[in-house]
Amino acid sequence: MAKQFTEEDDALLAELGVEVEAKKAPTRTLREERIIAGFEDIQRFVEEHGRAPLHGEDRDIFERLYAVRLDRLRALEECRVLLEPLDRHGLLEGTAPAAAPPVDDMDDEALLAELGVEVAPVAELKHVRSTVEKKAAEEIANREKCEDFGRFKPLFDQVQHDLDTEVRVTRPFVRDAGFLKAEIKAGQFFILGGQTAYVADVGEPFKAPNGETDARLRLIYSNGTESNLLLRSLQRALYKDEAGRRITEPGAGPLFADENAEGDLASGTIYVLRSKSDHPAVAANRDVLHKIGVTGGDVERRLANAKLDPTFLLADVEIVATYELFNVNRRRLETLIHRVFDPARMHIEIDDRFGQPVTPREWFLVPLFVIDEVVEKIKDGSITDYVYDPGTASLTRIAEGSMRSEGGG
C-alpha cells in the first residue's frame, strides 16, 4: 500500500529538493455532485432528528422528499457505489421498495411530482431551516407579471372595501376542519404570503401520482403577479402559512324570512324616507332623493325630531317604504345597502343648528322601484353581485360576479 505523505513529510521533501506531486481532487460530474448534495441533505436530517426520513401525508414536505429520494438512491447501483464512502449513518443498507419506478435523473421536481407537490428544487434550498421552509411553502410556484391585471384590480379593490366594512371577513385554516380536502373554486379569495390571492381559473381535474385529484390553477395576486400552481399545493401552502386565511363570500345569508316564524326575533327595519326640506338641491330631486337606513327601534320614534337632526337635513320627512328584518346584523346590512347605492350618493352640505357645516351621507338619488329590487336581491342572496348604475337608473352586475359566473364558481 502506498505511503500517504503528511504535510510535514511534504515540507521535508521540499527542503531536500524533491518535488511532490500535488494531490488532485477527484473530479465529478454535475449529476454526481447533485446526488451527493441531495444525500448530504438526508444525512443532516438524520443528525437533527435521530432517524431516517419517513413517508406519510402527515409528514413535513421536506421529510417526504428525503424519504422518496433515499428510496431512489438505494435503488440505483451507481448511486450506491458513489455514496457508500460518504454514508456515515448506514442509510444505504436499507432496501428500496420492489416497485420503485426507474429514475433517469435525480431531479427534485420529478420526485415532488410523485408526491403531488410543487416546491422550489431542493438543490437550491440546501441548508434550509424552519423559517425558510415557511417561505418556500408560500412560494411554491414561480410568480410572473400578470399582463391583464387591469381587469382583476377592481376585484381586489372591492374585496378590500368589503373587508374594511365587514361585508366579508377572513377565517383561519384548521386541519381538523377538513380544509385540506375542501374544494377550491374559481372566484374565491385567499390571503397567502401577505398578499390577497384570487382564483381566476381552475383547470381540468387529473389524478396525481399519489392518488389525489388535482388541478392547475390560475392564481392572481394583489401585487400584480400570477402563478399557475396546483390546487393541492395551494391548500398545503395556506395551511403552512401561519397568516394564511380564506376570505369569506360577501353574501349576508338569509337576511329575511317570508314570515315571522315561531322563535324568530325581530331585528329591525329598513326604512326609506323622502325629505320635505326646501333646500334647492332637495327640491329639484325630491322624487328620487331617498334616505335609506336600518334601525332596531320604532321608525316613527326615530323620526320624531327629524327637523332638529342634520342627518335628516334639518327638515321633516315622510316614510316611503319599510321592510321588516328578522335575525340579522343591522349594521352590516346597512353597510351592504349603502355600498350598492354608493355611486348615487347625494353630496349635500348644510349648516346645523349651531352654524357648523354638516354633510349627511345616507341620502341617495335612486328611484323607489330600484330600492325594492335591491331588497329582493338581498332576500335571494344575489345582491353582492350588483351595484347601482346612475346612468341607466338600474342595477348592473359587477365584474366580480361576471368572472365568477364565467369561471364556473
SSE map:
Layout: H1 7-15, H2 30-49, H3 61-75, H4 77-83, H5 108-115, H6 130-138, E1 144-145, H7 153-164, E2 170-172, E3 189-192, E4 195-202, E5 206-207, E6 213-214, E7 217-221, E8 225-227, H8 231-240, E9 245-247, E10 266-275, H9 280-284, E11 289-295, H10 299-302, E12 317-326, H11 330-340, E13 350-351, E14 357-358, E15 363-365, H12 368-380, E16 386-389, E17 394-397, H13 399-407
Helix pairs in contact: 2-3, 3-5
Keywords:
SH3 type barrels, 7-stranded antiparallel β-sheet, 17 strands, disordered N terminus
Q: Give the helix proportion (percent range).
A: 25-40%
Rg of Cα set: 33 Å
Strand content: 15-25%
Topology as a string of helices (H) and strands (E): HHHHHHEHEEEEEEEHEEHEHEHEEEHEEH
Which descriptor suits the 3D outline?
A: elongated
- The assigned structural class equals alpha+beta
Count of folded domains: 3
Strand adjacency order, main sheet: 1-8-7-4-3-9-2
Describe the sheet with the most strands.
Answer: 7 strands, antiparallel
Q: List unreliable stretches of 5+ residues.
A: 1-5, 96-106, 114-141, 175-181, 252-259, 261-265, 400-409
What's the number of extended β-strand segments? 17
- Give the number of helices: 13
Distance between the termini: 74 Å
Give the rounded overall mean pLDDT: 75
